[in-house]
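Much of what follows relies on a compact textual record of a protein's fold. Each token is a code from a learned vocabulary of local backbone shapes. The record below shows the convention in full.
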Amino acid sequence: MKYPTQKRQQRGVTLVEILVVLAIMGIMLGAIVAGSGQVATARQKHAAAILASAVKVGYTRATATSKSVRLVMDLENDQVWLEESRVPMLVASKDTSATGGAEAATEQEKISLDETDRILKGPRAPRPRYTQVDSPGLGNEGKKGPKPLPRGIKFKSVQTAHDDLPRTEGRAYIYFWPGGQAERAVITLNLGDSTMETDALSVVVAPLTGRCTVKEGAVALALPTDDKGASEREDPAGTGVVY
């Protein structure tokens, strides 16, 4: 016995259904992109907090140990750590090697110092030598060695009082001295390789107090003025998140 063939009813996808699916996909994609942006911004703020903590540790250590301390920022590998010297030093202004008058730590710094000595000639006093110290205050979970910045966050530039221009490669240093004094500086962090001003975040280090203020965008280093009414302890960057 033959049964009648059952015909399967077929229907096409309507334009409305396609539009609904595309709208859902767009919303999901937008949420993913927005979420990733928020995560990156959170990492950037965390990096700023790490640097502010490092400045505070360096400032406190210099006062407690009566030794010169410096914060080292490796702009090539996006790492940070603290070093100290047993020999007191005065930072040399506009030092082309970035060391501020200390012994060279990299080959490029050595070349710059040799060239400076060749130009100036004459006998020169030995340069202070800095060695790395354990810095638990950097949040490195008890591990020795450099503290890397959070993933996707890079140094854009660092300018200090002994630099003529912001440094964008090699190493940069911020010095702290016994008696409670920090070097004036601005550290600018970037979201990856972005060139947008809105993707920059600056950590401004105030002299004397070592207080850090986090500002949106790239902030220029504020030079001291002859205005006697202005205090060195004032925040040189104006309003912002203070650490």
Remarks:
- The first helix runs from residue 15 to 65.
